[in-house]
């Protein structure tokens, strides 16, 4: 049984997450046994440290926290049915977290299931979450940018090196003929 103080703490944690987190996912953990849930938590911690928090909440506590944060309950209603866990992420790339959860879910036959969430202040449903999980992360985008900037320089170096290489081949051919 949760005490009043513990309930207040949980509500305040979620209100803080609503204000500060760049990603909040509402997750249905139905069908996850304790070892699988523990594995999920540990892999989250190993990949993202304390920047990603995964907690199980009562829907009534979440509704109270949403009221306190002055957000519309109607927008969150579809996510607050059945067992609900909340994953909140701050100071990390939200797409990377979505990719991780999607990959874990796919490897475990759809467990846990993303009901929806909030990404950078925008409410997303489960379909949008899965679409965003397919996008490249910030690190992947940076790598693409560096490759696209580096490619013309690489091409110029190869073109210049090719001319020098051809000159050496010609000089070696002349030397072999003499």
TrEMBL record:
GO terms for biological process: translation. InterPro entries: Ribosomal_uL10 (IPR001790), Ribosomal_uL10-like_sf (IPR043141), Ribosomal_uL10_bac (IPR022973), Ribosomal_uL10_bac_type (IPR047865). It comes from the Bacteria. The keyword Ribonucleoprotein applies. One of its GO terms (molecular function) is large ribosomal subunit rRNA binding. One of its GO terms (cellular component) is ribosome. The keyword rRNA-binding applies. It holds the Pfam family Ribosomal_L10. Keywords: Ribonucleoprotein, Ribosomal protein, RNA-binding, rRNA-binding. Part of the ribosomal stalk of the 50S ribosomal subunit. The N-terminus interacts with L11 and the large rRNA to form the base of the stalk. The C-terminus forms an elongated spine to which L12 dimers bind in a sequential fashion forming a multimeric L10(L12)X complex. Forms part of the ribosomal stalk, playing a central role in the interaction of the ribosome with GTP-bound translation factors. HAMAP family: Ribosomal_uL10 (MF_00362). Belongs to the universal ribosomal protein uL10 family. This is Large ribosomal subunit protein uL10. The gene is rplJ.
